[in-house]
Amino acid sequence: MSDTFSDTNYVQLEIYPSRLLKPETAQNLLNEISDLEGIIRLFIHGPRLPQTVPYGPATGLPVNHSGNAVIEVAGQAIELAVSVGSIRMEVLDVDVKEQVREVCEKVLSVPFEFRVGHFIPTRQTVSDYARRGPNADPLMTGMTDPKGKLKNQSICILRPDDME
Amino acid sequence: MAYEPQYYPGATSVAENRRKHMSGKVEKLREISDDDLTLVLGHRAPGSDYPSTHPPLAEMGEPECSIRELVEPTPGAKAGDRVRYVQFVDSMYNGPSVPYVRSYSAAINFRGVDPGTLSGRQVVEARERDMEEIAKFQMETEMTCPALASLRGATVHGHSLRLPEDGVMFDMLDRCRKEGDVIIMHKDQVGRPIDKKVNLGKPMSPEEAAKRTTIYRVDNVAFRDDAEVIEWVHRVFDQRTTYGFKPEN
Q: How close is the nearest chain B Cα to the Cα of A160, in Å?
């Protein structure tokens, strides 16, 4: 249960734009970020966009939200399923952090907050242990919605070669 | 001298806008046809008769009652309309109205209404044609900006979220969209697709929204900027505490 993935020198960042991002802007930003060396892991955070109306008299009807798009990042198709509100990531060191900041300044047309802090859990909780068992990949800790079903959660490995 | 209600204290633009909303002396900014309104409300088909829940009062033969003689029924009550609702959501990012002010506006300026005030949304229940009158009034005037306020019967999430890049308040059911320089509504207030796109008009520019808003914000007009409002809020809370305190002995 005490398996940790993160090296203590890794830096965690949060990019918090002043507006919710359109899928095209999110795609541009993520593509630029994925080109950088030294990004360990990253997740997208924001209000969920359901495929069908969840409640009310229109329950079950398709929503077709324009924000619920499939974007392509580093050659991989990713279904967004959220309106992109913030991007939280873990990077190798402070040099990579500065590169990420430069990318944000280049791509984002709206003001944004750029924070360093602790945003992704690095240690399994008891609930994680109960869900994933003793041999869970520590890289996945904190990368999925703790309330969602594991089989519905999409995690993309953008550069599988770098994993080895 | 005849009494003139003052409605709300304060000298700031927000206080002035609140007075305007509450007194009903608001500027009309856009035109929405009756059919379009019926379509987006989604309670009945446009052009159809109002379904009724009881016969018209004139045919019912009401009991003798001095109050009934004193109070003229509203057109909806007279005709026996069903009670239906309209619900608005206003963005915290300088949305033109806020739930409390919408409720004050409905209760002060219209009869036979039941306004419900919640943190991020405001609902008015009334006889169907009376409700439509309120909805039309609020949607056509400066009480509503099609981008920063919207009709949402269910799934109201959005008032406290950051605005999306296009400036149209987040809506997970995607009822409103910006097309060109106008906002269109292509679903009714609960998210059912409607037959045509209803043009709700142009959104307010950020500067205009900041000028017309009734929300105190530190990045626009801060609540603490208005000494008279603070004084009266303190007075109300003071007196509530004083009169609420009832020792047993």
A: 33
